[in-house]
Specification:
Blueprint: E1 10-15, H1 21-32, E2 36-43, E3 54-60, E4 72-77, E5 80-83, H2 85-98, E6 108-114, H3 122-132, E7 138-143, H4 148-154, E8 159-163, H5 169-188, H6 198-201, E9 203-209, H7 227-240, E10 247-250, H8 254-259, H9 261-267, E11 271-273, H10 289-298, H11 310-327, E12 332-337, H12 339-349, H13 355-360, E13 367-373, E14 379-387, E15 390-391
Parallel strand pairs: 1-7, 1-8, 2-6, 6-7, 9-12, 10-11, 10-12
Antiparallel strand pairs: 2-3, 3-4, 4-5, 9-13, 13-14, 14-15
Helix pairs in contact: 1-5, 2-3, 7-9, 11-12
C-alpha cells in the first residue's frame, strides 16, 4: 500500500559512452553503503568471440557477477550490437518481481545502464517504466541517445537527470550523493502525503529560449523568426504535447511569442506576456557587445548608462518566476524567454554557471531547461532538456 506516502525522485546519470557514468555510480554506492537490488550490464572484452565480438552480460546487482548462457544479452562487434531479446525478456520477469519485494532489504534500486539494446524487448522496457512509478528510489545510468524509450525515461516527472561530462564528473559526485541520500531519507521518514497528490506539490517551469531569430531585423521588439526558427517552433509544440502544460508565459518580444504560438493553439491556453522576461539590455553598439558581455559576467553589477547589469536581469526574472509559482502551484508552466535571461537565472541557482557556460549556448536555438520547486516555492533543481533542437537528457 502506498497511501499517505510521499514518493521519492529517481536519480539518472546521463552521458555519452566512456564519460564515467558507471564509475560515478560505483563511488556513490560505496559512500552510501546500503543494500541494493536491480541490475548491472557489462561488456566483457576478455571473453571476446572472434566471430561475434565482445559478450554483454546482465547481472543482478546484489549477486556475484557470473557469466552464463542465461544472462548473456548480446554481443558487440565493431560497435554493432547483436541483441538476444529472449535474455532481456527473462530478466524482465525479475524486474517485475522487484516491485513486490520488501524494500527494507534493499532500499535502493540500481539500473546500470539503461541503453538502446533494451528496446528490442517490450517487456523489459515496460518493467523499467513500471519501476519508475514505484516508491523505491532508483539510481540509474542512462545512455545519451535520442530514442523514444530513453526520452520517455529521462522526461519522466519523477526523474532528476544529472548530465555527466569529463569536465564535471568530479564535482558531480557530491551533488549526486547528497540527492540520493535525500531520497533515501524521504523513504525512511515517510510523511503523511498521499502520493495521488504528489505531483500537485511539485511545480515545474520549463524555461524555453526562443527559436532562431532573423537578426537582419534590427528592432528588438518586432524581430521575427527565420524559416528554420519557425520549424523549430513547430518542433517545440510537438515536444510539449505530452507534458500536460497548464500555463504559458512569454516576454513581449515577437520572437518569443512566435516560439510558443503553436503550443498556445494546441493547448488552447492564453499566453501571458511580461516585459520582465525580456532579454538583457547591454546598451552599446552591436560590435561592442562581446567586450561588455564578458565584463558583465565577471562583475554582475557592471552596467552601461543605457543598459542593465546581469544582476538587474536576474532580479526581474526571479521576481517574475516567483509570481508565476504563486499563481500556478503544482502545475507545469512554459516560459518563453531569452538566452541571457535564462543564463542569469541558472547562475542564481548555480554560481558555477558563468561566462564559459553562457557562451556555449549563445547560438543554441531552442534551449529548454526544466526547473522544479516544492510546495513552498523552494527550488529543487534544474535539468537541461534540449539544446539546439536535440534532447539532452
Amino acid at each position: 500500500m502506498q497511501n499517505n506516502r510521499k514518493l521519492p525522485q529517481h536519480t539518472l546519470i546521463v552521458g555519452g559512452q566512456g564519460v564515467g557514468k558507471s564509475t560515478l555510480i560505483r563511488r556513490v554506492l560505496e559512500a552510501l553503503d546500503v543494500p541494493v537490488c536491480g541490475y548491472i550490464t557489462r561488456k566483457e572484452p576478455h571473453l571476446r568471440d572472434p566471430e561475434l565480438g565482445d559478450p554483454i552480460y546482465i547481472y543482478e546487482a546484489d549477486q556475484p557477477q557470473i557469466q552464463t548462457d542465461e544472462n548473456v544479452v548480446g554481443h558487440c562487434l565493431d560497435q554493432r550490437p547483436v541483441v538476444y531479446q529472449e535474455a532481456f525478456d527473462r530478466y524482465a520477469e525479475k524486474l517485475q518481481a522487484l516491485s513486490k519485494e520488501d524494500h527494507e532489504k534493499a532500499p535502493l534500486l540500481l539500473m546500470d545502464e539503461v541503453g538502446i539494446m533494451e528496446r528490442h524487448s517490450p517487456g523489459f522496457c515496460q518493467a523499467v517504466l513500471d519501476l519508475l512509478e514505484g516508491d523505491r528510489p532508483i539510481l540509474a545510468a542512462v545512455k545519451y541517445k535520442d530514442r523514444p524509450y530513453l526520452n520517455q525515461i529521462r522526461d519522466h516527472e519523477r526523474c532528476r537527470c544529472f548530465t555527466i561530462t569529463e569536465e564535471n564528473r568530479e564535482e558531480l559526485f557530491e551533488e549526486v550523493l547528497a540527492f540520493v541520500r535525500q531520497q533515501l531519507r524521504l523513504v525512511k521518514d515517510r510523511d503523511s502525503v498521499d502520493p495521488r497528490n504528489y505531483q500537485k506539490e511539485i511545480t515545474t517551469i520549463y524555461l524555453v529560449r526562443h527559436s532562431e531569430p532573423d537578426n537582419s531585423v534590427e528592432d528588438e521588439m518586432s524581430r521575427p523568426l527565420t524559416a528554420k526558427g519557425r520549424q523549430q517552433a513547430d518542433w517545440i509544440t510537438e515536444y510539449f504535447k505530452e507534458k500536460r502544460i497548464q500555463a504559458l508565459y512569454s516576454s513581449d518580444y515577437r520572437r518569443t511569442l512566435d516560439t510558443i504560438r503553436g503550443l498556445a493553439r494546441y493547448t488552447g491556453l492564453q499566453v501571458h506576456s511580461d516585459p520582465r522576461l525580456r532579454e538583457g539590455v547591454l546598451g552599446c553598439p552591436k560590435e561592442e557587445n562581446p567586450i561588455h558581455t564578458l565584463r558583465q559576467w565577471h562583475d554582475f553589477d557592471y552596467r552601461l548608462p543605457e543598459g542593465e547589469s546581469l544582476r538587474q536581469v536576474e532580479q526581474r526574472m526571479l521576481q517574475c518566476l516567483k509570481e508565476i509559482l504563486v499563481c500556478h502551484r503544482g502545475e507545469n508552466i512554459v516560459v518563453s524567454t531569452h538566452g541571457t535571461a535564462i543564463s542569469s537565472v541558472i547562475h542564481s541557482y548555480n554560481p558555477a554557471f558563468g561566462w564559459k557556460e553562457a557562451k556555449a549556448v549563445k547560438r543554441a536555438w531552442p534551449w529548454i531547461l526544466r526547473l522544479e520547486y516544492d510546495q513552498n516555492g523552494t527550488f529543487l533543481g534544474y535539468t537541461e532538456m534540449v539544446r539546439e533542437h536535440e534532447p539532452c537528457t
